Amino acid sequence: MTNSVKRTTISSVNWDRQLKRRLFITDALVVILTVIAARLLRFGLDEPLESDQPVYDGLSALLAIAWLVA
Q1: CA pair distance 55, 63, nearest whole angstrom
Q2: How far apart are CA 27 and CA 30, in angstroms?
Q3: Is residue 59 a contact partner of residue 19, using CB atoms and an 8 Å limit?
Q4: Would you kindly state where each structural domain of the chain is located, as residue ranges?
Q5: Per residue in 16-62, pLDDT tens?
Q6: What's the pTM value of the predicted model, to 2 decimals?
Q7: CB atoms < 10 A from the CB of 32, how many?
Q8: What distances in angstroms separate CA 58 from CA 29, 34, 37, 38, 61, one per listed residue?
Q9: What does the DSSP 8-state code read for residue 46?
Q10: 69 to 2, 19, 42, 53: CA distances (angstroms)
Q11: Which ranges of the chain would DSSP assign to H, the alpha helix?
């Protein structure tokens, strides 16, 4: 009986870790794709580099990192 309890506990811990990892990866992909889409909508592909564009890119990256850390 003790062995089955230990196996269940170990497998539930592995399941929990796998779920957390999958959720983080999914969340990261959604955040990255959203930041890229927002940048493309804001600046487009054909416009030359604007003076505020690097600031916007930096703030977008900072917000994405903050979202993933929180």
Answers
A1: 12
A2: 5
A3: no
A4: 17-69
A5: 889 999 999 999 999 999 999 988 888 787 767 667 778 888 899 99
A6: 0.68
A7: 13
A8: 18, 15, 15, 13, 5
A9: T
A10: 38, 17, 25, 24
A11: 2-43, 53-69
